[in-house]
Amino acid sequence: MPVPRPQHPRDAMGQSVATGSVGGPGAPLPLLPLLLALALLAPWGSAGGSCPPRCVCASNILSCSQAVLSSVPAPLPRFTAVLDLSHNNVSRLRADWAPGRLAHLHALLLSHNGLSFVSTEAFAHVPHLRHLDLSSNRLRALEENLFSDLAELEVLLLYNNEISAVDRTAFDNLSRLRKLYLGQNRIARFPLELLRDGSRLPQLALLDLSANRLRSLPVGELQALPAWLRDRLYLHGNPLACDCPLFQLVARGRRRRLSAVVDFQEELRCLLPTAPAPVGILALAGRQPLNCSEAREAVLEAHLGDTVTLSCDTRLRGVRSQHWVTPGGERVLEEGGNGSAALLANGSLQLRALRPEDAGTYACWVAGPLLNETLYVELLVHNFTLHGPHDTLNTAYTTLVGCILSVVLVLIYLYLTPCRCCCCRGADKPPAPRDDSINSSVLSATPNHAAAVPREPCRSRSASATGSGQNGRFKVGGTPQPPPRHGPKAQRKVSDPDSVSSVFSDTPIVV
Question: Is residue 504 scored above 60 in pLDDT?
Answer without folding.
Answer: no
